[in-house]
Amino acid sequence: MSTALPDCVDAERLAAHGGVLPGVISPARAVRVSELFRLPAPLVAELRFARDALGKIVVEGSVRGTIIAVCQRCLEPFENEIVGGIVHEIAPIGAVSDSSASVGAAENAQAFAVLALAEDEFILACPMIPLHPDGICVTPDERLKNTSGSRNPFDVLAALRQNGDT
Ligand SMILES: [Zn+2]
């Protein structure tokens, strides 16, 4: 059905004919996202490659998916739809080949790390502090206050002991 997004692509070749690159990223391949959140399904990416007026290759598109994050208010896991926008410029090779000092900006357009870019942008779109929308949940402390005050762990223990005696 959907093809996997490659690790690397030839961005020059794609940009030469305004190429569109759709692809999915399985949870196993989205290693850095999976370290932060559980992924119930693959991420779906779509990237367009083009050259701007200055000759730079521009990568635009989106990467979307569902994460299972733990709400930092109620501490319950919940599903969160994430859409990351991608706008990235690849510096032309000629501009970086003359000086090794600028190597930090150099990217190999012919083996462009498209998977890493999609993963970076997805992580940036994820919430630093995942929370249910306001009013949906309460903190565990508030939940305890709201439930009847008569329940305490010793009642539960006593009930267990009685069951064990019979
Ligand atoms: Zn919550």
Task: Provide keyphrases for this structure.
166 residues; alpha+beta; 4-stranded antiparallel beta sheet; 6 helices; 30% helix; binds zinc ion
Helices and strands in order:
Elements: H1 11-16, E1 20-25, H2 31-36, E2 43-51, E3 57-70, E4 77-90, H3 93-97, H4 114-125, H5 140-146, H6 153-165
Antiparallel strand pairs: 1-2, 2-3, 3-4
Zinc ion (ZN) binds next to loops.
How does this structure look, described?
The longest helix has 13 residues, at 153-165. The chain has 166 residues and is an alpha+beta fold. The protein has one domain. It has helices at residues 11-16, 31-36, 93-97, 114-125, 140-146, 153-165; strands spanning 20-25, 43-51, 57-70, 77-90.
Count of DSSP strands:
4
Bound molecules: zinc ion
How far is the first residue's CA from the last residue's CA?
58 Å
Low-confidence stretches: 96-104
- SS summary, helix count: 6
Give the overall average pLDDT: 86
The overall number of domains is 1
The fraction of residues in strands falls at: 25-35%
Order of strands in the sheet with most strands: 1-2-3-4
Tell the overall outline: elongated
Q: What about the largest sheet?
A: 4 strands, antiparallel
Could you spell the SSE succession in H and E letters? HEHEEEHHHH
What's the helical proportion of residues? 25-40%
Structural class: alpha+beta
